[in-house]
Task: inverse folding
């Protein structure tokens, strides 16, 4: 018996001490598609650092970092509007050391905007990386008229509508009601009233919705198969589909596409900070940024990358955005605390509500 | 010898105790404390019951809660109704040589993860899916029908995911049922209904309850199936907990919901045991 006990101990000790010392790694908390394999391989060749990406979204990134108080990852990529209030409250990130960043290769206006929007206590916490817009993906063959967020509630497309049950939808629909939710960010009471109106609209129009999408690939699949005609989604998805089927395209909504910038932010307890800066500088190098844009269709904050773009990528932007559309893009300002719980309750109510078809529509279908 | 035995005992009990304490008890205590805290206007954490009050004041929360509970009970009952004939067939009807093989067939779908199985159902049932395709080709349907995103499909998905956990305990209790009891009942002129209700079900009661508890807990705590198959019309209470933690960053509220779910499942199981006059210690054996 004693032998067995001894053996158990010995085995467990050997196991504990023989864990292999891995090569240098970069734990990257990012969005799907933000770390293309080709670029990770090139980075490993140049620096010997292996990138280990974890795919997530804004809410989950914050929750993950909050659970560990900013440990476990060397670099995260939250949107610029979701950093300041979170940083103030939970101290998840460390300030950016601009001396380690090759700022010459970043578009100055975006660098400045992100610097300003992530300013907490005199220090900035993020660098711009990728930008894009949320708007409509429309199948022109079946929905030639769809042009604004209000078409997400249009009975003409009954059963052929899809959107995410997340805050961008609330904000987009609010803009289509000729309101400016961003102007109410500082006034939670009025913001709540507006969101309640938006929520009621979504409940009234619930019977029109095919489903609330949660996974980008699944949405593209249902657009491709013709199950969905009008969806609210990111621009790159529409452009990807346009390459396969010219009927489908991204449309900048009349009341304004919602512009976002995803950033680089370094978690407070990052282990390999130098690798994080190396990856930042690497990803913003024009030729690397162009590899990313040509594959994923999103633009980056890399100055000069445009020279390496495929012609098709350039035409995407021109096709979907007139100069007026560009001027009309609503860029997300930093989200103050407390708004998330207001929106959360509204979204829960929409999802829990029973759909009811109005009498006028019922007669029509019979 | 005695001391050696106690040393071995200690060696084997330590991981269990550590596991229970560090990974289950401690986090739960932390969550319980969290659920009684809230943020005041200045952003500081204070003791409060507001998280629990919110639950009762906001209809959307307790309605989802009741809906989840009722559907979980319904799913448990349907699973039982489907599993009993299957278990009976495997243990009593088919020749013993095949019963092992049939149980293996039941087990096979569980070699792939739940996510993959749910996506499998979605490929079958979606509007442009396999089933619609065959119905259209055979001329039974003129236009494809959306079969996903409703409660019926969701219940079916939940029954499918949890059937195995009902069949296995039923097989083990039915194996101990003496065939001659059923034969005697037939000799005395008993019909199928009275044989099932007066011989099989009373004998299988411990198995039914243990299967029922597992199925009920799994269904109540399921997140994937209601979310993916139920789609737009199926807010499940687990999803509300997830939303509080992830989307609203309100961990205190999420923790309170978590405890309410724990209380709900424990009390429904207690009620079930009382109604069927079973003891928990008997059932878990």
Result:
């Amino acid at each position: 018996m004693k032998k067995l006990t001894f053996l158990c101990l010995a085995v467990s000790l050997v196991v504990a001490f023989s864990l292999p010392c891995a090569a240098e790694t970069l734990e990257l908390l990012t969005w799907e598609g933000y770390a293309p394999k080709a670029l990770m391989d090139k980075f490993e060749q140049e620096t010997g650092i292996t990138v280990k990406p974890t795919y997530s979204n804004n809410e989950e990134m914050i929750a993950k970092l909050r659970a560990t108080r900013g440990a476990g990852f060397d670099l995260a990529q939250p949107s610029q509007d979701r950093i300041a209030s979170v940083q103030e409250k939970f101290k998840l990130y460390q300030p950016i050391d601009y001396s380690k960043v090759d700022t010459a290769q970043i578009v100055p206006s975006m660098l400045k905007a992100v610097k300003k929007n992530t300013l907490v206590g005199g220090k900035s916490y993020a660098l711009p990386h990728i930008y894009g817009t949320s708007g409509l993906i429309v199948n022109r063959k079946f929905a030639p008229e769809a042009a604004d967020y209000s078409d997400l509630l249009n009975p003409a497309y009954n059963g052929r509508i899809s959107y995410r049950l997340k805050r961008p939808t609330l904000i987009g629909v609010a803009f289509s009601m000729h309101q400016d939710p961003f102007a109410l960010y500082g006034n939670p009471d009025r913001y709540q009233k507006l969101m309640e109106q938006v929520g009621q609209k979504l409940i009234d129009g619930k019977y029109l919705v095919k489903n609330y999408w949660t996974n980008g690939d699944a949405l593209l699949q249902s657009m491709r198969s013709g199950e969905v005609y009008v969806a609210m989604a990111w621009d790159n998805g529409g452009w990807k589909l346009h390459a396969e089927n010219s009927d489908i395209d991204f449309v900048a909504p009349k009341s304004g596409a919602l512009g976002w910038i995803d950033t680089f932010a370094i978690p407070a307890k990052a282990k390999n900070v130098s690798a994080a800066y190396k990856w930042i500088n690497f990803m913003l190098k024009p030729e690397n940024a162009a590899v990313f844009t040509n594959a994923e269709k999103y633009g980056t904050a890399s100055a000069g990358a445009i020279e390496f773009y495929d012609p098709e990528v350039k035409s995407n932007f021109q096709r979907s955005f007139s100069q007026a559309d560009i001027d009309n893009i609503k860029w997300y300002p930093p989200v103050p605390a407390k708004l998330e719980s207001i929106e959360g309750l509204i979204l829960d109510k929409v999802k829990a509500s029973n759909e009811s078809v109005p009498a006028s529509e019922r007669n029509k279908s019979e | 010898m005695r001391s050696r035995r106690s040393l071995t005992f200690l060696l084997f009990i330590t991981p269990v105790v550590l596991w229970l304490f560090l990974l289950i008890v401690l986090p739960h205590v932390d969550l319980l404390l969290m659920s009684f805290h809230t943020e005041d206007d200045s952003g500081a954490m204070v003791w409060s019951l507001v998280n629990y009050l919110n639950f009762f004041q906001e209809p959307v929360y307790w309605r989802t809660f009741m809906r989840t509970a009722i559907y979980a009970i319904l799913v448990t009952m349907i699973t039982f109704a489907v599993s009993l004939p299957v278990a009976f067939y495997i243990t009593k009807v088919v020749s013993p040589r095949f019963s092992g093989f049939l149980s293996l067939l039941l087990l096979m779908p569980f070699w792939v993860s739940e996510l993959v199985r749910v996506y499998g159902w979605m490929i079958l049932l979606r509007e442009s899916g396999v089933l619609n395709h065959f119905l259209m080709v055979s001329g039974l349907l003129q236009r494809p029908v959306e079969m996903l995103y409703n409660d019926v499909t969701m219940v079916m998905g939940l029954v499918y995911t949890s059937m195995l956990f009902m069949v296995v305990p039923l097989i083990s209790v039915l194996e101990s049922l003496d065939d001659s009891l059923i034969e005697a009942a037939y000799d005395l002129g008993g019909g199928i209904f009275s044989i099932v209700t007066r011989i099989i079900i009373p004998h299988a009661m411990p198995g039914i309850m243990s299967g029922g508890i597992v199925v009920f807990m799994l269904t109540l705590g399921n997140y994937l199936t209601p979310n993916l198959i139920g789609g737009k019309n199926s807010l499940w209470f687990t999803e509300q907990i997830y939303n509080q933690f992830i989307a609203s960053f309100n961990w205190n509220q999420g923790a309170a919901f978590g405890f309410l779910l724990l209380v709900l499942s424990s009390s429904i199981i207690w009620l079930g045991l009382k109604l069927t006059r079973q003891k928990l210690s008997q059932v878990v054996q």
Residues 139 and 248 of chain A are 4 Å apart (CA to CA).
